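Q: My labmate handed me this sequence with no annotations at all. I'd like to see what the chain might look like in three dimensions before we decide whether it's worth expressing. Could you predict it?
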Amino acid sequence: MDFDAVVSSFEEDADKRIKGALSSYIYDMPQYPGDPVEGGIHYARYVKLPTSCIPQKQPPLLKQFASVVKKYIRAESSFFDLGPGPDWSVTRNTIPALRVLNPLAYFAVDIELTFTEEACRVIEREFPDMKVQAIAIDFHSKVLPYPQSGVSVVWYPGSTLGNLPSLPGQTFIENKFVADHLKLLHRTTSFFQTAMSSTLDAANKGALFAPSCDQVRLVILPGKPRITQG
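A: Here is what I predict for the chain of 230 residues:
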């Protein structure tokens, strides 16, 4: 998929830019006076902060805490890759995580079938003994299958948040899979804080690993915690 083409499609119409995907808000620069889309300015400032944790920083962070994380990840764990993106993204961001966690099964989940198939091909090539499955659904509104094991690893890259609609409903929060396996804490009143500061509540029962970063990236939950919105 051509990301530039997708983003540019929202630039053609101001209304689409406001009501389209969040990616334009997060990464684009203003196109005209008064343009509410100015995420590119804020993002450029954000990534320079020492406390920021963009996707490129995630694999080293996971590797740093590998010994702690692996205590809770058994060999039969299931790894759900929500929004894996194109093959280069899988190679750069997902494979390092899989090398650390070594799950039994890998699930590529994306609304675009092409992305799920690409991700599975890359993973099969790198991990020939790992079970892989492509799931082409909108995981923000559709129920995901339950894991094949008692421990779930949910890989939720920041770019996935950018693909959310700019005016989302409650379908994502009400998703049964999410309700059972994720707890998202939204400490925000403005859009930019919502997009860039949504974090996992580390105090949630069952939350075993919650790196401090700009968005939820890795969640390991053996239980079924509730979702809390703030």
